[in-house]
Amino acid sequence: MKRLAIALVMVALLAGSSLTACAPAGGEDGGSDTGAGDETVYKWRCQQIHAAGSLYYEKGVEMFQRIEEASGGRLVITNNPPGALVPAAQELEAVESGAIDVMASPGSIYTGQLGIVSNFWTGYPAGPGPSEMMMWYFEGGGRELYNEMLENASFTVHHAGIWILTSAELFAWANKPIDSLDDFEGLKFRSGGMWGNVLGTLGASVVTLPGGELYQSLERGVIDAFEYTTPGNDYTMGFYEIADYVVGPGIHSPTSMCELTINRDSWEELPDDLKALLTEGIDASLFQNWAEADRADVEGWEKIKETGITVITLPQEVQDEIVKVSDEFLAGEAAKDPFFAKVWESQKSYLEAYRAMKAAVQPNIGM
Question: I need a surface site. Which of 21, 77, 207, 242 has the fewest CB within 10 A?
Answer without folding.
Answer: 21
